[in-house]
Amino acid sequence: MTFDPTTLTYNDAGLIPVIAQDAETLEVLMMAWMNAEAVAKTLETGKVTYWSRSRQAFWIKGETSGHTQALVAMRVDCDRDCLLVTVRQIGAACHTMRRTCFYTGVETGEEVELMVPEF
Amino acid sequence: MTFDPTTLTYNDAGLIPVIAQDAETLEVLMMAWMNAEAVAKTLETGKVTYWSRSRQAFWIKGETSGHTQALVAMRVDCDRDCLLVTVRQIGAACHTMRRTCFYTGVETGEEVELMVPEF
Predict the structure, then answer these.
(1) Alpha carbon distance A104, B51 (integer Å)
(2) What is the pTM of this model?
(3) At CB < 8 Å, which residues of chain A contact B?
(4) How confident is the model at residue B103 (pLDDT cuts 50, 70, 90)?
(5) Interface ipTM above 0.90
């Protein structure tokens, strides 16, 4: 079946959550949002392109920072309301210059910083 | 710092997206939602407990199917608006009886079923 981005289920703002996973290490890097056009652009260009809710604009990941995400594969979930992209991440996925946005652990009721800025 | 579920950022419906990842294989299994009480219950019980948007009720994963998720670790992202839980998954994470909900690939413009029901 031909994949049509408009057949996905978007929220009231026209967005779908997207999980980015490192294709090599399998580390979960971040979660962000795409609209149908961002999904299409990501597939067309191979550059992972989100929709920035704060800027209300396309957000080609790494365009200004150089910390790009090259698309390796895209998957759709069973409900068609979430995407998983596996990526080749250059540098930090997180704006705090850490490898992943998920650098805070919850351990026996305490928040623990699991990694420091690397890039 | 003591972790307080009420300090996370929830959407207008009081929910936060949660990514579940297999602690052993690192496969991304599913994405679902929790409210602050579900986050607290998950930590207290060690049983991953979502909030079902369709049923408007707590959803202790696997309670009826037996396909439980035992919490291994919880992480918070940089914006405090997404959680990652690593889990020990018994059986299928997906209601279609597949290992993961992300069983549909998008390959050269086509949707491809990457795995069949296993459980």
Answers:
(1) 23
(2) 0.97
(3) 1-3, 17, 19, 21, 26-28, 30-31, 43, 73-79, 82, 84, 94-96, 98, 101-107, 109-111, 114
(4) very high
(5) yes
